[in-house]
Amino acid sequence: MNSTQTPRISIRGLSKRFEDKVILEDVNLDIMPGTSMSVIGMSGTGKSVLIKCILGLLKPDAGEILIDGENWLALKQNEQLARMRRVGMLFQHAALFDSLPVWENVAFALLKRGEKKPVARERAIEVLNWVGLQKIENLMPAELSGGMAKRVGLARTICHKPDIVFLDEPTTGLDPIMADVINRLIVRLHKDSGTTILSITHDMKSAAMISDQIAMLCHGLIHRQIPAGKLDSDTDPMLRQFIEGRAEGPINCSHWGKKIEEAINR
Amino acid sequence: MNVLVSVGRLAEAVFMHAGLYALTLGQTIRRMASRPWHARMFFQQAEEVGVQSLPVVLLTALFTGMVLALQSYIVFHRFAAESLTGLVVSMSVVRELGPVLVGLMVAGRVGASFAAELGTMRVTEQIDALWTLSTDPVRYLIMPRLIAVTLMMPLLVIVADFVGIYGGYAISIYMLDQNPAVYIENTTQYMELTDFYSGLVKATVFGMLIGMIGCTEGFNCQGGAAGVGRATTRAVVISCMSILVSDYFLTAWMFG
Lengths: 266, 256
What we know:
heterodimer, A: alpha/beta, 10 helices
């Protein structure tokens, strides 16, 4: 990796609080072009808030979000919307539009850009095939299983060929086989197109499989950032506790940890 | 002290909601000046608001006109002024009952549907998904709904006016044995065009209120399925109250 290269995503001093609850406090993170990074951390540590701040869905209290050196927080709303063409987002529960058939969901971004319906439909079917779904283009989202909805969501995320993809808990709620299918598709996407990927997850198997880099978010800060290959050998106590899934450990020192300890002792 | 805290909280909630409504309306009007206008969404909503509300509006208007004729006749009969029944029915329907009753029906049907639909989209992250697909949610979801209900309300009221007047006519002529020629002459002689227009002005304002309140409640919904339920209830209650309150002020402004 070229050290002088501008990061595709650069987060500087990002802070976000809801009323008196601090969620993110001085988050700093660089993601280089073509890198797949997973942010791991316990539920409620602010992983989703981090992605929502980057995408402009939440307004941070302080900090900068630079995409290819451009501060997205300083952009006007219509400029932010225009930049969203470069972005794809897979939501935790797919967030498919209930009122549209599968193909219109997948081709939504293309149709809104003024692409002709037959062309957009053809592209949607092509991407649906890519995620392993055939002949479902006319179904409504309510007719899909959880795994199918997630794959349709992934198809929608990549249909307009974004160069940055965000994945919010891509394998949560799926059976192990379907989770593996999704992971393989993400790896294939990353290898085939060199897309920069930022995923948030607490599925360690998924994180190890789809990422080049892993960052751990804890107490509102990026506590540790390591190459995915060093996940097994890293000795950081908090990271080890999280990877091994132990209730005992330094993470219990947080404000809610005592309650967990009390519950275990009872 | 508790009373003061409660009053303070209530005042805060009222001002917060009023501010949100004004903000939504302002954001929507600002977007109307430029493309894209999402015409397909507008026609879809116009069909939903206008055509699909017709049965409930027609039924309401017909029976209101019929009841009004019956009640007016009974009162006028006491001082031998039955011939005024047609005028009273027409004036009441066109100036007051048409827009208000249609408004209340549409608030229950359409305002609730706007809040529930947008609320569900909010809690299932579909609104966030729109943004990430470079689509402005206010322009795509709120603008077509607000324009549709504002334009469809006067059209529904025109239909309701005719049906309500016909309901009164039918009862007066076929049940109360009034002279049709006298009935029509008395009705048309004293009615002015401004009576009709005032009802349409009211309908337009009520439509805008229903759209603004329903969309804002749904769009800013929080708290899962229970939150959607609360937003829907609030949308209907606040829309109905706004219609009744604004009706007084509009009447005072136009005829005061």
